[in-house]
Specification:
Radius of gyration: 22 Å
Strand content: under 5%
CATH architecture: Up-down Bundle
Helix content: over 70%
Oligomer: single chain
Shape: globular
Low-confidence stretches: none
Order of helices and strands: HHHHHHHHHHHHHHH
CATH class: Mainly Alpha
CATH superfamily: MFS general substrate transporter like domains
């Protein structure tokens, strides 16, 4: 998948030569997630999670194979990348919530935070080698972008085969069966009734929607700012991934630490500052250092945010809460197009600086206006827990 991100962006920019095209590919990925993401969470809480993952992975593999064949036949056009983005976005609308909620089925509750971060570590590790391989393959004439897509198709198929070893992931039985629409509404009410979870999700929205679109425009940064080709783009991505792996290892060691609640907004603010640094980088070498910081801080924030959200959510709601949180990725895709238009008008470096400033301002405002309500609710929850334990301690043995 990480190889395909590079190949898709490189191909879109090569076909059109415009940042708007990069944004268009991302918006095609984001729109289906926006409309289907919540339903992905509902199904993850109602159906066997492994079956959902198998079906969606096979669809994505077929989608990748189609693009590979079109490139090989020299029939590829930009609109095909848009269609492929829609299909892939629809697939991940169901994969994302099911995969995250599956963690709650596979590990004990007190290990959820560490498990979430370790899963992210595995993904970040592929980001170290994937972009470099993609950049190298693109530069080899007899492999090229088509070869990258063929390799990624094989990767999706292998991932599907490994999923056969997982348990089915059946949802827990319910006393009262309700409609999918009622399930969806219940999930939204659940988040609204828990300000701490709502603040985590809103912070994730601010960081991912405003800041993460930088990933879509790295082909433009590599070509227009640092004047390096596909290989340089792969190195740029790899430095970001190396920073991400280092940060994830650190977060994994402290995932269950209570200080992570305070670290989460600080990581978000630092990520915004690193984007500003990338926008101001005077040359490729400074750009590599900035990318290591961007990748590390983005991964650190995401790992802490996901870990806190998962460990704070009751089991029956894991899929729906994750689907609400993952709406930020669809909004990230939607924001990519206007950001691409802006970059074509004022320049990609100036746009990166604005994105970083947007992240900082958004996080500060959320902490000022959202944290008070969350703290009050947390205190109420602790009081309810103490009262519950006191009631159990005073109950007669036969009544327990």
């Amino acid at each position: 998948m990480q190889m395909q991100v590079i190949a898709r962006g490189y191909l879109a920019y090569d076909l059109t030569g415009r940042n708007t095209a990069l944004g268009g590919v991302m918006i095609a990925f984001g729109v289906p997630q926006l409309f289907l993401g919540l339903w992905g969470g509902v199904l993850a809480d109602r159906l066997p999670k492994r079956n959902m993952l198998l079906i969606c992975q096979l669809i994505i593999a077929t989608n990748s194979a189609w693009i590979a064949v079109m490139i090989e036949l020299d029939r590829i056009e930009f609109w095909m990348l848009i269609v492929a983005g829609v299909v892939q976005g629809a697939g991940f609308a169901f994969i994302g919530p099911a995969r995250q909620a599956f963690i709650g089925d596979l590990v004990d509750r007190n290990a959820i935070g560490n498990a979430v971060v370790l899963q992210q570590l595995s993904m970040n590790s592929t980001r170290v080698i994937g972009p470099s391989l993609a950049g190298a393959f693109i530069g080899i004439a007899f492999v090229g972008v088509a070869g990258v897509y063929f390799v990624t198709t094989l990767g999706f198929i292998l991932a599907t085969i490994t999923m056969l070893r997982l348990p089915p992931g059946y949802p827990k039985p319910r006393e009262n069966k309700v409609s999918p629409m009622a399930d969806l509404a219940d999930g939204v009410r659940y988040v609204k009734s828990r300000p701490s979870i709502a603040l985590l999700i809103l912070t994730s929205f601010a960081v991912i929607m405003v800041g993460f679109p930088y990933q879509s425009f790295l082909p433009s940064v590599a070509k227009e700012v640092f004047h390096v080709g596909g290989g340089g783009l792969g190195i740029l991505q790899s430095f970001g991934a190396i920073g991400a792996v280092i940060a994830t290892l650190f977060v994994a060691a402290y995932a269950e630490n209570k200080r992570m609640w305070a670290a989460q907004p600080l990581l978000a603010l630092a990520f915004g500052g690193s984007l500003i640094g990338l926008g101001l980088a005077p040359n490729f070498w400074f750009g590599l250092l900035a990318m290591a910081a961007v990748g590390g801080l983005a991964s650190g924030f995401q790992g802490v945010n996901n870990s806190l959200t998962m460990s704070s959510t009751d089991g029956p709601y894991q899929g729906r809460v994750q689907s609400i949180s993952m709406l930020s990725w669809s909004l990230f895709g939607l924001m990519a197009l206007p950001i691409g238009i802006l970059a074509d008008h004022i320049g990609i470096q100036e746009t990166l600086v604005l994105l970083g400033c947007g992240v900082v301002v958004s996080v500060v405002l959320l902490q000022l206006f959202g944290r008070t309500e969350a703290v009050v609710e947390d205190r109420r929850a602790r009081v309810r827990a103490i009262e519950s334990r006191s009631a159990e301690a005073g109950a007669p043995a036969g009544g327990r």
